[in-house]
């Protein structure tokens, strides 16, 4: 054969796979020890002329075979007396002198090439990225507006943002986390707009991450959060490029993580988690109405069931007489107290929700509908729950899912159990105590050292134009004051 192909890594049994490489010098022997027992590792050698003998080392499953033939093998076949690196028509070739760097390049889809006459190793990027077509978001669906979403390919995600923000001031800084996964992270911000203090804090948090395995952006967020034990998300996860662009334009940071379609946005506030991308696409009255519905739904989802438990346990006198008769009749044959009755139904609802999420889409939807109807009806007929509670639990569950951010939905569901327990012990006063505890907790939270409950604490009235309502865009002329952006004004007309 024209090329002499050495055995793949898994066939080189003379090397002990458990023996550590003692010699850290970059040589062919040390590289052989590294790829031992790797079935997809290939070593190819060829004597191209009496003065030049080249060696190729690569991981077959990580490189583009077509580019290997066109850009490496073909030029070497027609090799001229010129140096090897001048004969290869690739733009991503770099000299490698360090064994650690050679290992990193090899596992990132590079080909290691050596000309023995020149005694020099080259790393040539020929990675074969696995990518899928750009699809619409499945987690943040909207009726109007852009339909594209991020993919697992980090370079493609950067492109989707840069096409929307064609600015030289849009900076990207790359980091790597995970000693095993070597996961790339790209920190994006607009220079001259974003507060430099935020950039410094984010960089320091990324650089202090010390863990071996990262498979999703949520794991990165867990290491960067200011308050690990809080149930409230301190980073916003999104797979929508337009959400990231809007955040960058407001003076925030966007963090892209390799091999996951979900980006991180920070810093955020509690109120950012109630904002939907189409709030800024609808007319301002419609957008304000829908945002108000979300806040009301969040409040109802936290109070309806605890209020049912509190009234049935401690505050019968609050019901009108006719309503009280209906309620007593519906609960007359129930074996459980109001707390355990509600607790049982909530657990059943959580089981149905979790099961529907884990099953295929159509099957999960069917399971959710049929499971809710059948179990609800059966619970009433069996005497495990009252009709009033079934209606209350149904409205509360639906209301909780109006919040656009799924992490906030789960925090809401967890808070519900705590509120229900307090209401069973102290009644309505327990609910009030729960709200006070939550408000104090929210006031003490930060996201990248920025107040989490802004613009209420601290108070910034200028940011209220885009808080509970979405004012006309012509009125929102300033960026959020709580972020302390270098460019405060969005519009050249400041009045």
UniProtKB/TrEMBL annotation:
Pfam families: GerA. It comes from Desulfosporosinus youngiae DSM 17734. GO terms for biological process: spore germination. Belongs to the GerABKA family. Keywords: Membrane, Transmembrane, Transmembrane helix. GO terms for cellular component: membrane. This is Spore germination protein, GerA family. Residues 1-21 are annotated as: Disordered. The chain crosses the membrane at residues 292-311, 388-408, 414-440. It comes from the Bacteria. Residues 8-21 have a biased composition (Basic and acidic residues).
């Amino acid at each position: 054969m024209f090329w002499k192909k050495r055995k793949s890594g898994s066939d080189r049994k003379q090397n002990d796979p458990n023996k550590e490489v003692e010699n850290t010098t970059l040589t062919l022997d040390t590289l052989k020890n590294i790829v031992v027992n790797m079935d997809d590792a290939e070593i190819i050698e060829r004597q191209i002329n009496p003065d030049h003998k080249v060696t190729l080392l690569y991981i077959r499953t990580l490189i583009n075979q077509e580019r290997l033939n066109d850009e490496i093998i073909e030029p070497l076949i027609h090799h001229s007396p010129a140096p090897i690196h001048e004969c290869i028509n690739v733009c991503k070739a770099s000299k490698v002198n360090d064994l650690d760097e050679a290992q990193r390049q090899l596992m990132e889809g590079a080909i290691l090439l050596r000309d023995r006459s020149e005694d020099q190793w080259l790393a040539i990027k020929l990675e074969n990225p696995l990518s899928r077509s750009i699809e619409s978001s499945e987690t943040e669906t909207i009726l109007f507006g852009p339909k594209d979403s991020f993919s697992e390919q980090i370079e493609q995600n950067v492109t989707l943002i840069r096409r929307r923000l064609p600015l030289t001031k849009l900076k990207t800084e790359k980091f790597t986390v995970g000693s095993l996964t070597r996961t790339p992270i790209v920190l994006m911000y607009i220079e001259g707009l974003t507060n430099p203090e935020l950039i410094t804090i984010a960089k320091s948090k990324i650089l202090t991450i010390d863990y071996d395995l990262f498979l999703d952006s949520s794991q990165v967020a867990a290491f960067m959060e200011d308050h690990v034990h809080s149930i409230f998300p301190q980073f916003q996860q999104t797979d929508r490029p337009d959400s990231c662009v809007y955040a960058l334009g407001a003076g925030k940071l966007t963090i892209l993580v390799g091999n996951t379609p979900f980006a991180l946005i920070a810093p955020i506030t509690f109120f950012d988690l109630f904002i939907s991308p189409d709030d800024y696409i609808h007319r301002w009255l419609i957008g304000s109405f829908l945002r108000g519905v979300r806040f009301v739904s969040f409040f109802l989802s936290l109070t309806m069931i605890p209020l049912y438990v509190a009234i049935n346990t401690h505050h019968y006198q609050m019901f009108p007489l006719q309503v009280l008769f209906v309620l007593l009749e519906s609960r007359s044959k129930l074996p459980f107290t109001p707390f355990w009755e509600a607790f049982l139904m909530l657990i059943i609802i959580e089981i149905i929700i979790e099961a529907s999420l884990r099953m295929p889409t159509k099957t999960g939807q069917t399971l959710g509908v049929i499971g809710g109807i059948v179990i609800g009806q059966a619970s009433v007929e069996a005497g495990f729950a009252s009709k009033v509670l079934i209606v209350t639990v149904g409205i509360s569950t639906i209301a909780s899912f109006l919040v656009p951010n799924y992490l906030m939905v789960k925090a809401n569901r967890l808070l519900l159990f705590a509120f229900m327990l307090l209401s069973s012990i102290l009644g309505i006063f327990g609910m009030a105590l729960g709200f006070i505890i939550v408000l104090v907790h929210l006031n003490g939270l930060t996201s990248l050292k920025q107040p989490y409950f802004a613009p209420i604490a601290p108070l910034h009235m200028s940011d209220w134009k885009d808080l509970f309502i979405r004012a006309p865009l012509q009125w929102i002329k300033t960026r959020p004051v709580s972020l302390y952006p270098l460019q405060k004004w969005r519009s050249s007309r400041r009045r």
